[in-house]
Amino acid sequence: MEGYLYYPGCTLKTKASDYEKSAMAVMEALGKPLVEMDDWYCCGAVQSLTTDDLMHQIAPVRTMCCAQEQGETELVTLCDMCYNVLKQANLRMREKPQDLETLNEFLDEDPDYRGEVEVFHLFEILRKMGREISKKTVKPLDGLRISPYYGCMLLRPTEIAMDDTENPKVMEELLEVLGAQVIDNPKRTECCGSYHTVNRSDIVEKRVKAIVARAVDDGADAIALSCPLCQFNLDYHQRSAGYDIPVLYLTELMALAFGLEVGMEKHWIDPKKMLKEKKILE
Amino acid sequence: MAENKDEKMIDIYVMGRMYRVPEGLTIMTALEYAGYKYVRGCGCRGGFCGACSTVFRTKNEYKLRMDLACQTAVEDGMFLVQLPFVPAVRTVFQIDKVDPEEHDNILLEHYPEIARCVSCNTCTKACPQDIEVMDYVQAALRGDIDRTAKLSFDCIQCGLCSIRCPADIKHYHLAQEARRIKGRYIDIHSQQLAHRIGELHDGVYEEKMKEYVSMKKEDIKKVYDKREFHKEG
Q1: Model confidence, pTM
Q2: Which residues pair with B79 in a beta bridge?
């Protein structure tokens, strides 16, 4: 396949459409387009932690089986949650063949999943394309100070981490290629509060305040990340603490550096004002 | 009822009691043959209304099967039970307040339980209409109202998907809402009706109408047979 087989996940089709659009545009520009799977299913969003949870592996395994039936061994995700769930399910199918057998028997309407598909996060792909990214960077993000934020899902548990769990560098590397100045945030791997946003926003507000405060105090112009839920939490809940720092998907920044059209339509804190001040946008 | 010697008889069990019925009857007619009278759970008898969804077991099989009672033939050794109708909860909404342009995912807002779908596909296996039920729930989950409506188009609202779902999803109500939203907001609205009503208001056909009313029956039949059809669009 020219490019990569792409698993979107539900949020990318709704609340995080800015992320999908910018990632598609960036990969298209890099000559490695993301090709959406013919069939795919909601990953379940959260890795199940119950003891008897085989049922919750059905959806991710079904999706990986779809990739297998499309004749692909590599599957790329954008959403951190999807990445985490798919990768953990895949690992389990390899480590526990009896679970795979049970699922294959249950999924009698589909061919057996053989456990051969590899799940990647987009950043893992981009990391290997530094030179191409540099070539495509026609409008470097000069003078833009960006604080990367990783959250949990890309890095934990260690078995499925896409980078060093304690000291990840992938976003820093990519931002430097784009010409941005990286602002280190020691809280970049701390949890944003995740789904507590549903009914305990006080927890999220507290955690987001601590994360955002570090970025702002160190002079960052924006926060870069890839998880749609972290994006919502950091973007929405920082306002309760009086902050107004834009929270962008890293692919949005990359699209800007490539000189591509970037919508940035679904942000609570509009990044356009800051980007105009910094002469990134006209 | 006296047995006809040419008819092959089979044994079925209704609420545990054995009845000997002619082969080839549907579940519905077999129950009536056995003396039961349907007061509810029976509608068109043609497989369209979805009122007679039922659950049964076949001989030597532990799994429950489900289908429409009016469309499924009884088999020897079949176990039948009484099944109440399917009263799944439906979200009440106002059609002029569900513009998909103004909501990230209106179906998820109205039926949040779809987020519990584990893709087990039991709904699809239960569907007597061979609809890809799981696929349309998944489409709804990602906000694709058009696909939800298209995939569910043949739904007869029998509710078998919902009674089998481990996640308590109300598939058929969700799908009906998707089709209604599609009809209201996504489909192209035909201009012909408004055009024709305008013509009627303007009296374009009044002369013709007077002419037709005064015509003999045979003559108007000829006019009718020669009428022209206009293409859509």
Answers
A1: 0.85
A2: B13, B57
